[in-house]
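Hello,

Following up on my earlier ticket. Below are the two sequence lines again, exactly as submitted.
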Amino acid sequence: MIDILLQHPFISALVALGLLAGTFGAVLGFASVKFKVEGDPLVDQIDELLPQTQCGQCGHPGCRPYAQGIVNGEAINKCPPGGQATINALADLLDVEAPSLDEEHGQEDIKKVAFIREDECIGCTKCIQACPVDAILGAAKQMHTVIAAECTGCDLCVEPCPVDCIDMIPVESTLSDWHWELPNPAQIIATDRQNQEESQAA
Amino acid sequence: MRKIFDFHGGIHPPENKHQSTQGGIESIALPKELIIPLNQHVGAAADPVVETGQHVLKGQLIAEAHGFVSANIHAPTSGHIRAIELRTANHASGMAVLSIVLEPDGEDRWIELESCDQPETLDAQAIIAKVRAAGLAGMGGAGFPTSVKLGGKDIQTLILNAAECEPYITADDILLRHYAAEVLAGAQLLARVFPRLESILIGIEDNKPEAIASLEHALAAQPNTGNTLAIEIVVVPTKYPSGGEKQLIQLLTGKEVPSGKIPAAIGIVMQNVATARAAWRAVRYGEPLISRITTVVGKALKKQGNIEVLIGTPIAHVLSERGFRETESERVVVGGPMMGWAIEDTLAPVVKATNCLLLPSKEELPAAPPEQACIRCGLCAEACPAELLPQQLYWYARAEDQEKLRAYNIFDCIECGACSYVCPSSIPLVQYYRAAKGTIRQAEKDKRKSDQARLRFEARQERIAKAEAEKEAKRLERKKAAEEAKRKLAEKQAAEKSASAYSATESAKDSTKDSAKKDAGEPDMKAIKSEMVKEALAAAAAKKSAQQDDSSEAEKELKRLQRGLSSAESRLERARATLLKNQEEGADATRLDTLAARVKEAEQKVNDARKKLEAAQ
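Thanks for your patience. The regenerated structure is below:
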């Protein structure tokens, strides 16, 4: 056996390669079973970036289905609540060019929260059934109200209301969530500066 | 002599302290109204405990701390509560916050205060309770509730901060010149809160010789009781920002506060000297924090100096008392030139943390020159006392790259402004960091909210799926029950049929059976019964097999008709038997009539069945 291998380098090479291929194949096969990942991790990563308003403006029943959709090759610019920031983050994650928001699915808007005009509410529970995050409290023939802290501002409760008593109110910013804006100076060069000072002096 | 350490970087801006140290502590007239914001401290806003129209006395509690990290608020003078409404905050945003508006009655009448003649007998809990009741919040600028800081465990070093490194500000300097004894008493008082305390230090910059002298004098005069720790006055060289908490700790102890931690993590707690004095007054005299010394300085004022101002005094009132020349002024700055912020609305009030109002003239503090491109000279990195890389932070702040900003420890930036000060391109670096920090915090908040929304959405989906599954399970159960009932009914019918078939055969060969029955007696009855059951089962099986059989429709029909005939016959048999029995027993006429009718009916059915069977055959 050894003699044959020694005398026929071609055969010995084939045997060696075959052995290597077999070994690595076995390792890979083992790894694919042992380290199998349940579900698509990319869906989770995309889902993390989406704003979780569950509004359905992208055409999917929730953010996770849209994340799945993106993995399946859908455009990343269908999320108006996330706006350009979300598109940029998604583009960064997926390493693609960031497109601008597809206006077909709605426009980027300021943050809003649903408000039920309680004296007009007839207690039909339709909005409760529509709310994707269970942020509306109430029972049949009882007044309903929105838990503002849980409301994602998805707008889905407005349409089913038979008496149109739900308003989308812009979220007022408070002192605690105010922060400084990034300075946005006109970039100038030194000679401009000199001119400016001269014109000021004049 | 204690070794003085050094911290990285730092700058030496013009001190501009002399303007406000010429006079003593002055006072101004009461304003027409005091605007007392409910949130002058770090933490939750206090809850108002007074109503509009109510008369309050000086020092009366008007808003109660809400939660642990919060502070009480007291009436700065006696008067009427005019409103509890939104008023412009003393804040860079210029936003409105809920404030109590107090109209002074001019009497300035104190509420009865609970003083304590022997504060040295109080235990730690009592001291903390008194400090909390007095609504103390850090008076050095940050406004962190003092009682929370005093709750620190395992503290070895108490440092009083008298460095006051920022240009223009002299509030602590003046305070020490006048009230050094009270500050020292406050230090001893606060020291007793920490059982494991080893040293009490007062850090002060060497540009305040009068204050140092005053402190030393007071220290010499302080009775040495032996059971108190000695206070050490540590004079540090003047360098901005030596008054920063972490920087002063580094100067005095050589220790660095770890990134993202508070000084308590290394056994140190720091209080401002003004806070120490306020703590002393709170415990000794029961005096709440209702006024503070504020430096009011700048060339746009006729008179510069330090004023004891009531908390809530509108800045506009302070300015008018000091002869503010609006035309000469560029802006109204709260705080010093390095870390202060400009406010638009001068109706904003002085709050517990307002240590300086700076009213520079246009020449004194000109508007920042336009920003130019970063030339990567690295001066900012040399100046940074937190040893960060300001130029890198600047790039990433502009690119809004939050990951990189975190990697470069943006949250360790103390916003001292040393980098902006040295920048040859006049880039307002701190503004970039402030904005970036805000955006990161906002993103974190949004993330928390979206995670919460995701959880709720998933929980809802799960609940709906569960309800749906339950409904489906119930439906299947009902379906199964219905099938079971149907099957039972069919079985019953089959049993009946076979039983009738049995009775028919029985009547055919009745004589033999009858004799057998008589012979066997009771056990035979059982045998008959079991036989009946067997036959019924056999009939059912036959029926089933017949159903399953591949036999043709005609055959099926035939069998069905045969079964029909036999059942009709048995029914006729039974009807006749009952009729006979009734006749024998002599039942009433109507009963006999109905029975006779039933017999006839049964006969008719038998005939029909026979005809049908014949036709089929």
